[in-house]
C-alpha cells in the first residue's frame, strides 16, 4: 500500500503511536554481509552500554533495579524490550548505533512491523525515526505532581556508572 505522509501519520495514530517521527525512504535492495549477525550482536552490546545517557527514558520502561543494572552494564536486555533498526540492513541501513533504537516489543515493536509491512510493494516507505535512543510514547511519560522516584533512583545509578566509565552525563 502506498502511503503519503498524512496517511502514514494517521496509521501510526490509529496504532496509538502518533508521536513516532517518520522519514520518507525509497527502499533499494542492498547486500548484507554474511557476518552481519555477529556484528549486530556486538553493536547491540555497544548500544546498551551507551544508554547511561538515556536514564529519563529508561525510567518510563518500568524496569526494576536488577533489570536496569543488567541493561546498563551490557549483560542482558530485559524481556519485552527490542532493539530495532531505523533503516533495515536489506534496504541499505548501516550497522551503526545511530541506526538503532529501543522500544517495548509488545505492543510497539509489533505495531511498527505491521506499519512497515502494510507498505509492502510501495515505491516510498515511511520508516520510524525516533530522535532518542529509546522510544517511549508520550502518553507513557506523563506523571503526576511530586516527581518520579524511579527516575531519580535510576539517574543516580546511571551517574555512578558514567563516572566509573569516565563518561560525562
Describe the overall structure.
The chain has 169 residues and is of the alpha+beta class. The chain has one domain. 39% of the residues lie in helices and 11% in strands. The chain has 6 helices and 4 strands. The chain has a two-stranded antiparallel ribbon with strand order 1-4. Helix 4 runs parallel beside helix 6. The longest helix is centred in the last third of the chain and has 16 residues. The mean pLDDT is 87.
Mean pLDDT across all residues, rounded?
87
Coarse shape: globular
Query: Strands of the largest sheet, in order across it?
Result: 1-4
- Structural class of the helix and strand makeup? alpha+beta
- What is the element string, with H for helices and E for strands? HEHHHEEHEH
Helical proportion? Answer: 25-40%
Low-confidence stretches: none
Please compute the radius of gyration using only Cα atoms.
Answer: 17 Å
Number of domains: 1
Give the number of DSSP strands: 4
Q: Report the sheet-strand fraction.
A: 5-15%
Oligomerization category of the chains in this entry? single chain
- Count of helix runs: 6
End-to-end distance: 43 Å
Largest sheet: 2 strands, antiparallel
